[in-house]
Specification:
The chain has 554 residues and is mainly α. It has helices at residues 8-15, 27-30, 35-47, 62-68, 90-99, 122-140, 187-201, 213-227, 236-257, 260-276, 280-301, 304-320, 324-340, 344-357, 363-380, 383-395, 404-421, 425-438, 443-455, 459-472, 477-489, 493-506, 511-523, 527-540, 544-549; strands at 76-80, 105-109, 144-150, 156-162, 174-176. A five-stranded mixed sheet has the order 2-1-3-4-5. Strand 1, helix 5 (90-99) and strand 2 form a beta-alpha-beta unit.
Length: 554
């Protein structure tokens, strides 16, 4: 067993946001995990200043360079702006020496000198520099621009802006304090500078509606090529941070478009780290992300083999790791795999252990685990225990959090469903009233309340909820079924048949709609069609007549 407690502060926030975005950047390229991949390439380039001539176009004036050079789409292109306070260009040239490789990074010095004047207008100067840097990147179709200044003690302050418009731009520069910066950087300084550059290259913090997915894919492919060629000798925490970033970038893309390429990249690198990683911590980190990648594949492709392998990988991981919060996170993910297999007992066992491991200082993590265990209890058929977990989970939602209304709404809807399963429509409606108060445009909550109201005979209110839900989410089959049920109880069979027809066009084996339409046809005197639909519904769900009879439909 390993004791990973010392790494908790930096690692856990990254592990907990798979879906939530951290620097999606350089991962492998700089990971010690890439160990044998790159040592010979990048470090050889560092030790031989002559090597950088292959990546840097020399002997051109700025204007001729601008007119004649086309940057490659296959390699990272890094623009270097002349450093402020470096009139002879000697310190700028040393940046090239530090970043030079053998085709992994394409470097080009631009004419424009970006500057940030530190003073009273620092924020304004920063904004101007970011905008100007964005314009230069668009002009050159480059990935990143690096700029900075030589300060009084001859150290360098270096800033970077990425092609996404500086979404990961930091007000704090990387400071390189090597005195006059001798012609050969020390290894640590070279690593620090290259790390600062690559850390920005694929930053994708704007992964929302305006996310440039094509750009992000292109940069992640470049990172994959880069990491397969080179590595740097980072400290363990830096190596893990970079590889974690890379895994999260691939996971984000895989969930976005389901392209097998991203899964293969993640699994290949994880296997490499497990076999070649120089520390057990690094190997465990890779195993964790390999398990997550396999679970993601099952969710995307229904691959049963991937699901079974994910469980085995998490078992190996848990045998290696002592650190409580990291174990808890893996147990929650393994419980997801057990639930996908339909094994509620094993899922609950994992979640019981995970919840015991989660400290009081992590209420959000505990809340998510409680919600997961509630789902497992529901899968097992124990609505009472599922409600109990949701009761506690709802109490843990911080009222001041920006996401609190949405989070609370989802939990209330889930609890209302459990009350409904227990046959308590009034408690279900009470939760749905609160959910709709918090989120009045939530079509799912309106549909659920429509159905619960119809069950207890409050039909006009039910119809109003269903209509509002369909205004928000037109042609939703679940809501059409609920409204058909409401029309049926209102003795409006023609309207009920219209809604049930719409559902059955999408899903001909929807038992509730088949049964409801059968009853509607019987109301109209069409016994043949009515009995045919009812028989088809019972063939799908044998107890459907008894269930709906409890709600006055028979």
């Amino acid at each position: 067993m390993l004791d990973f407690g010392h790494a908790r502060e930096w690692l856990l926030p990254r592990l907990k946001t798979p879906l939530t975005w951290i620097y999606v950047t350089i991962g492998l390229a700089l990971s010690a995990a890439a160990g044998h991949f790159l040592q010979s390439h990048f470090l050889a380039g560092f030790e031989k200043a002559a090597g950088f001539s292959a990546s840097v176009v020399e002997g051109w004036t700025c204007q001729r360079r601008k007119a004649s050079i086309k940057l490659s789409d296959q390699e990272f292109s890094v623009l270097v702006s002349p450093l402020q306070g470096d009139p002879n260009g000697t310190q700028t040239a040393k940046i090239f020496v530090a970043l030079a490789g053998r085709g992994d990074i394409q470097l080009l010095q631009v004419c424009q000198s970006l500057q940030i004047h530190i003073g009273d207008e620092y924020v304004t100067e920063q904004i101007k520099a970011v905008q100007r840097g964005r314009d230069i990147l668009k002009e050159w179709h480059a990935d990143l621009i690096l700029f900075g200044k030589v300060v009084a003690d001859t150290s360098l302050h270096v800033w970077t802006i990425n092609e996404h418009g500086g979404c990961d731009f930091s007000a704090k520069p990387v400071v390189l304090t090597n005195g006059a910066l001798p012609g050969e950087f020390e290894r640590e300084t070279k690593t620090k500078l290259l790390g600062a550059v690559l850390k920005e290259i694929a930053a994708a913090c704007n992964h929302d509606d305006d996310m440039n997915w094509d750009l992000f894919k292109r940069q992640m492919r470049k990172l994959t090529v880069l990491m397969s060629r080179s590595t740097l000798d980072f400290q363990e925490d830096e190596q893990l941070q970079f590889s974690t970033s890379y895994y999260n970038g691939l996971n984000l893309l895989y969930h976005h478009d389901g392209d097998e390429e991203w899964f293969e990249d993640a699994s290949s690198f994880a296997k490499f780290e497990v076999s070649k990683g120089r520390t057990d911590f690094q190997k465990a980190n890779a195993m964790y992300f390999y398990g997550r990648a396999l679970l993601s594949k099952r969710l995307k492709t229904n691959d049963v083999d991937a699901l079974n392998l994910s469980i085995k990988v998490f078992e190996q991981f848990l045998r290696m790791v002592h650190e409580p919060e990291w174990r808890a996170d893996a147990l929650v993910m393994r419980s997801d795999a057990h639930k996908l297999k339909g094994d509620a007992e094993l899922a609950i066992r994992d979640l019981d252990e995970a919840i015991l491991l989660i400290p009081a200082s992590a209420p959000e993590t505990r809340r998510k685990a409680l919600v997961a265990r509630s789902d497992a209890h529901k899968l097992k058929g124990d609505a009472e225990l599922a409600i109990r977990d949701l009761d506690e989970a709802i109490l843990l939602i911080p009222a001041s959090a920006p996401s609190a209304p949405e989070t609370r709404t989802n939990a209330l809807i889930a609890r209302s469903d459990l009350h409904s399963l227990k046959g308590d429509a009034e408690l279900a409606i009470r939760d749905l009233d609160e959910a709709i108060r918090l989120s009045p445009k939530n079509a799912g909550a309106l549909n659920s309340r429509c159905y619960e109201l119809a069950k207890i005979g409050r039909l006009e209110l039910a119809l109003a909820d269903c209509n509002e839900s369909l205004n928000l989410l037109p042609n939703d089959p679940a809501t059409l079924d609920s409204r058909g049920f409401t029309y049926l109880k209102l003795k409006r069979p023609d309207s009920a048949i219209n809604d049930y027809d719409a559902v059955l066009r999408l899903d001909p084996k929807q038992a509730y709609s088949l049964y409801g339409r059968g009853l509607a046809y019987l109301m109209l005197g069409n016994k043949d069609q009515g009995n045919q639909d009812i028989a088809a519904a019972k063939a799908i769900k044998a107890d459907i007549a008894d269930e709906l009879a409890r709600y006055g439909v028979k």
